[in-house]
Amino acid sequence: MKVLVTGGAGYIGSHTAKRLAEHGHTPITFDNLSTGHRALARFGPLVVGDVTDPAALDAAISAHRPEAIVHFAALSQVGESMQRPELYFRNNVGGTVALVEAALRGRIGTFVFSSTAATYGIPSHVPILETQAVQPINPYGESKLACEMLLRSASAAHGLSCTALRYFNAAGADPGGLIGEAHDPETHAIPLLLMAAAGKRAGFAIFGDDYDTPDGTCIRDYLHVTDLAEAHVRALTLSGAARFEAINLGTGHGQSVRELVDAARAVTGRDFRVEARPRRAGDPPSLVADAGKALDLLGWKAEHSSLDHIMRTAWDWTNAPANPLHNRG
Ligand code: UDP
């Protein structure tokens, strides 16, 4: 199958493009390269274009005739979204509106959407089921929820099949050393820990050690990006006219920030300075998926997501020559 992968030059998009190719599909990457990297778009044709641009979308669709869309292209920094909410709504919601319209013009009936656990906000229960209330607490989560609402309505109105995959914490890298996470600036815990281990940062700050959790630090559900990629490929087979599903992707188990620090030290064999700082605004104490629906509907569960494997592959990528950020301080 030919699949248009918006944001296919980004972190999760590039791993999904690779997995699609491994399953015999043809990924067509559509990316404006604002945060993605040309070097990561290596598994099929690359079209450089902006997802908010209807003419660019139409041109890509008529040139390549994809049968399905996997939509990653979006801004994803919570802090930035608090400063510039209009940018997040324009890009994330505006981009999804433009893409749905282009899908309708191009008669593409299958749509897989990159969503997030940030749609839940501060959960009332952990592990989190998809039926729990969605009450995002930042514009990033709000923008993703608005896209889900559009997709739900568009699937009913136009007979599309839409799946929104709500990721917990994506981490790790493909073991081949050619693709991985390359955010600039980096804000995520695991790459920051490994940059500290590599001597590229002075140390690592734990954002809050006074939470109501066993060791006082926040708990998250870390999922290896190759597991995440596989779930997208399976979601393409969830067909059914006018069907919309929101599905959590996580392991069902949580790890604390202190456990990440210990794993980073163990895997790298390096020590680095770690200090507790005040809490970061908007961080819920614990986010862990109930991943039962993904197993039921997609036959999917995490298989490569031990913290050791996540840390090892992320460490290899930190030091890989192909990493676009490798030579930067
Ligand atoms: N975190 C931290 N120090 C950092 C970056 C993150 O202590 O420099 C914590 C953060 O507060 C959260 C966890 O690590 O509890 C995961 O944060 P990340 O930004 O990786 O993902 P998020 O859960 O915010 O999507």
UniProtKB/TrEMBL annotation:
<protein>
    <recommendedName>
        <fullName>UDP-glucose 4-epimerase</fullName>
        <ecNumber>5.1.3.2</ecNumber>
    </recommendedName>
</protein>
<keyword id="KW-0119">Carbohydrate metabolism</keyword>
<comment type="similarity">
    <text>Belongs to the NAD(P)-dependent epimerase/dehydratase family.</text>
</comment>
<dbReference type="InterPro" id="IPR005886">
    <property type="entry name" value="UDP_G4E"/>
</dbReference>
<keyword id="KW-0413">Isomerase</keyword>
<comment type="pathway">
    <text>Carbohydrate metabolism; galactose metabolism.</text>
</comment>
<keyword id="KW-0520">NAD</keyword>
<dbReference type="GO" id="GO:0003978">
    <property type="term" value="F:UDP-glucose 4-epimerase activity"/>
</dbReference>
<dbReference type="InterPro" id="IPR001509">
    <property type="entry name" value="Epimerase_deHydtase"/>
</dbReference>
<dbReference type="InterPro" id="IPR036291">
    <property type="entry name" value="NAD(P)-bd_dom_sf"/>
</dbReference>
<comment type="subunit">
    <text>Homodimer.</text>
</comment>
<feature type="domain" description="NAD-dependent epimerase/dehydratase">
    <location>
        <begin position="3"/>
        <end position="250"/>
    </location>
</feature>
<dbReference type="Pfam" id="PF01370">
    <property type="entry name" value="Epimerase"/>
</dbReference>
